[in-house]
Amino acid sequence: MYYSADSPACSDPPADSHRGSVWVCEAGRESASDVAAYVKSLGARALILISSEGQGATIPIRRMNFPGVVLTAQEGSDLISYLNSSSDPSASIVFSKTVLGVSPAPVVAYFSSRGPSQATPGIIKPDISGPGLNIFAAWIPSEDGNSDSPQYFINSGTSMATPHLSGIAAILKAAHPTWSPAAIKSAIVTTADADVSDELLKPAIYFTKGAGNVNPNKAADPGLVYDITDDDYVSYICSKFGKEGARNIARGPVDCSKNVTEAELNYPSILLSPKGRAAVKVSRTVTNVGPARSSYKVSLTISKSTVSATVTPKTLTFTKLNEKKSFSVSAKWATGAPPRTGNPFVEGKLTWTSDDGKHVVTSPLIVSALE
């Protein structure tokens, strides 16, 4: 193996004659294929590329047209220690088989957009996480008619996560034709798997993962949904952008006689911003899409004792399908004032669980100290 501490990104040719067969290069500004082409031109027969520290456990597969493997920064650090301690370091790259269960999952990729949203600070964003890294997907052939253009490709990004979520939404719409887009979103958000890591393999926060990783099977039978009508959205847009802005978005006449704030929007996640010593309260309405006769009890979990929160009522009882019930959530700073230092956000979750335990409806909850 060849590695240069003076040129870790392999941007300069080695001064000595010993160049080795397998080059070890740290990621720089050049793409993996450019690095591979460069080291190949200097006599390398294979490449070990070490990702940057900021990418963490995220390793997007890149076409190199050259034998190569990509390591995380931690794995690369171990490799460099071996290189520095060995008089004749060597390696072999063996293409043998797929090994399952050796990597943590799900993990949010380093390139995934993070919240909070600057445009809608009162709504937790992102909503949800979905598969978007190294997806084997259909690929549009080049317009020049090149027959060598691939029909399938391994790709990463929001453009990969979006069709996964869109497909799940389409399946839910087929299963429940009367559900609105908001009801479908609610089903996806409130049934997500919350156990998700960030790219550094630490527990991901809501502003990184949304409610969690999408679980299509659970979303098909959520029990309760938070529904939002078209008029509710228009009233919200009116309060956000005014009548002219709402008309531009709706592309037609709008009624802005009613305004709905972000806190009042019947969203499946909840963000509260108590001011000073006063408590802040929001209301939510759920629709029963499970068994006609059912009852749900609430549990509220807050990650820090600096926040005091309550839900009223504690139980929701339904007697028919599509029946609606409302509840309120209030929160205040237990110390009497929001914290002035440290993380301004306190996470929690609000969960409605049916008496038979078959339906668990969980809403992400954040209490914010930001003004």
Describe the protein's architecture and organization:
- This protein is α+β, with helices and mostly antiparallel strands and 371 residues long.
- Among the domains are: 1-102, Glucose Oxidase, domain 1; 229-265, no CATH class.
- The chain has helices spanning 32-41, 73-85, 158-175, 181-190, 206-209, 216-219, 230-250; strands at residues 22-26, 46-50, 68-71, 135-138, 152-155, 224-225, 270-272, 280-288, 294-302, 307-312, 315-318, 324-333, 345-354, 360-368.
- The protein has a five-stranded mixed β-sheet, with helices on one face. Strands 6-8-12-10 form a four-stranded antiparallel β-sheet.
- The chain is elongated and about 75 Å long.
Give the structure's gist in a few sentences.
This protein has helices spanning 32-41, 73-85, 158-175, 181-190, 206-209, 216-219, 230-250, and strands at 22-26, 46-50, 68-71, 135-138, 152-155, 224-225, 270-272, 280-288, 294-302, 307-312, 315-318, 324-333, 345-354, 360-368. With 371 residues, it is of the alpha+beta class.
Q: Return the CATH topology of the domain at 1-102.
A: Glucose Oxidase, domain 1
Strand order of the largest sheet: 7-14-13-9-11
Q: What form results from the Cα inertia axes? A: elongated
Per DSSP E runs of 2 or more residues, the count of β-strands stands at 14
CATH architecture term of the domain at 1-102: 3-Layer(bba) Sandwich
Structural class: alpha+beta
Low-confidence stretches: none
Give the percentage of residues in beta strands: 15-25%
Evaluate the radius of gyration.
Answer: 26 Å
InterPro entries: Peptidase_S8/S53_dom, Peptidase_S8/S53_dom_sf, SBT, Subtilisin-like_FN3
Domain Peptidase S8/S53: 98-198
Keywords: Signal
GO molecular function, one term: serine-type endopeptidase activity
